[in-house]
Records
---
Amino acid sequence: MAPAPVCFKPDGQASRGSHNAMDKARLLLVDDQPELLRLMGTYLPRAGYAVTCCATAGQALEALASPGPAHDAAIVDMWLPDMDGRELVSRMASGYPQLRILIASGAALDTDSLGVELAGRIRFLQKPYVPRTLIDSLERLLCAGR
């Protein structure tokens, strides 16, 4: 059984677990819109997160499999050029049980329809969103059940 994710605050402070106070929540941002990647890739680090930006599902899966510290959460667009977002979320959820997933989409989505056991690990955020709403959603996702 995978360890439960640590509850992070945006400033990188961990409220429990083995992480020290210098750790930041590591995010994987997956979206095919270059302007959104650029904007959130700038904003999220200023809010205290470590961010890896990916424009395709393939890049996201490579980033997850790469050596180094694990990602704590992924922000995933449902419409990607190389893979359906549902397939990517399913692979992420089954292959990385510690990963929390925030689905960001302009279309409404029933997360129960994804066909994976979510146990509070996956949430939905309606696009368009403002950065503060994204941060609030990330905080709730990372701290769910803590």
Note: The helical segments are 34-46, 57-65, 85-95, 131-142.
---
Amino acid sequence: MTQIRRRPDRVGRFAKARPLVGKRAGKTPTDEQLERSLRALATQLGEPGELASVELRIRPSGRSRRAKSWTFQLTPQGVRVTSGASSRPTLRMVMARDDWWAIARGDTSPIDVFLEGRIRMIGDCSVAERMFHRIADEGVVTV
């Protein structure tokens, strides 16, 4: 059996998102900080120019809480984020709270998290790619 090991040269290989929160926000988000980061994402997406519904389901770090979902309604005029799941999203993304927070702080790339199997995507993944291109750090090559 072949074992796959993470290669150190892969770290930081892909572009990161522009930070949605300040670096002083801490390593573990409060519910309020999490909510603010999602609203900041909607603001950074601006006017995507397409119609889509993206559900982001965030699993808790501890055992005491249930996963929470937010839905981003993308329209040519802008993005609206609401708390709660979508009945038929164009794309559903599921990840751990710590992974979302690392992306929101600009500490890691969503692509790296995806390639490491820590984000599950169900639906039209090209929507996620277009979203990432809109929020990626300028001057950094993305895939």
Note: The helical segments are 31-45, 97-104, 110-115, 125-135.
---
Amino acid sequence: MTVTQSQTQSQPVANATRRQITTDPTTSRAWWFLGTLAVLRNPEGAPRSPAVIELTVPPGGSPPLHVHDTLDDSFLVIEGEVAVRCGTDTVLARPGSYVALPAGVEHTFRVTSSGPARMLLVHGDDSFLRSIEALGVPAGQLSLPPAGEAGPDVETLVRVMGEHQVRIVGPSMSDDEARRASARPETTDMMAVHRVFRQAFAAAPTLVGGAAAGEPGRIELVASYYDNVLRFLNVHHNAEDSLVWPRLTERCPAQSDLVQRMISHHDQVHAAQEQAAAAVGEWSASAGPETAARLTGALAELSGVLLPHLDEEEDRIVPLCADHLSVEEWGQMPGHAMAHYDGDKIWLILGLIRQNMTPAQRDAMLEHMPPPARDMWVNMGNAAFDGFMAQLRPPSPEGADQPARSAT
């Protein structure tokens, strides 16, 4: 939008001051402050509130636990990664993260990236700036201070910071705490879950077509297998709807189109899954060539919708989850799915997942199971699964389409 002078009511006002209206690093005041480089981004002569300070902190750098009595501390992470603790919450802030820490709440951080972290502090008053001026020394160059640069002793640090409404209340964040906050979830277990669906639907022509109408026990077995797999697909996607998409939408705004597309995929898969579930019930109640054909067709249609979704999820969503979800958040997925599972053979689902895992993944899965679920699997579930799969698997040379057997 452009407005001309003739469109305005007032006349130009003469410039009343000759102060700077912009800065760049070469014209900004800078200090070496407690092992960091602090650059004041407010122009010379401009108001000091809000105070905008560019702070560069070396790897492993961490201030002592402290409280700003009157200041809401906030910063934008420009480069690097920072584990931030505020009160009882610890989070990992990455480039683009804006961290807002309320006044009166103790907090600290630690740089977890291999290189320095660069943060833009935005403060509503100049209390912290005054502590930088009191304790820092003018930077000889716009880089981190030389190694071994002496800083104030602890007594002086506590006293001067306190004079500027910053109370030191504890030690810096430990490396162990920062490492836990920055730990990435092991997301490759998603592939084992996806293989359950890939294998089940690939085997449908053999399993359904091989169950003759005169074999009611075989039909019941195959129908139970697909009924449980379809129910698991439903709760698996519900877990993603509840725990994954909202978090990625919030944390990955640049990927919003991708996330929305995955959500729309779920709607399409759910519609096809309901059709397949109805076909399973129909075939189980009245097995014959027509109902068998309808079931294999419904499962093929579901597979046609589902498999491209799984491919894209593995290529694009799983890496995003590894980068933007915590270990704890990723770990909520299995519990959510199992808590909402309404099939009659939960041990079958556990076994189908486990047989597609590496030994290390199986051990981790067993370790993190709630004790009742672990006892169920060890005492009867594993044996029940092996027995079920021994009956389900037809003698066929094309075993590659069938799930591998062992889930121990």
Note: The chain has 13 helices and twelve strands.
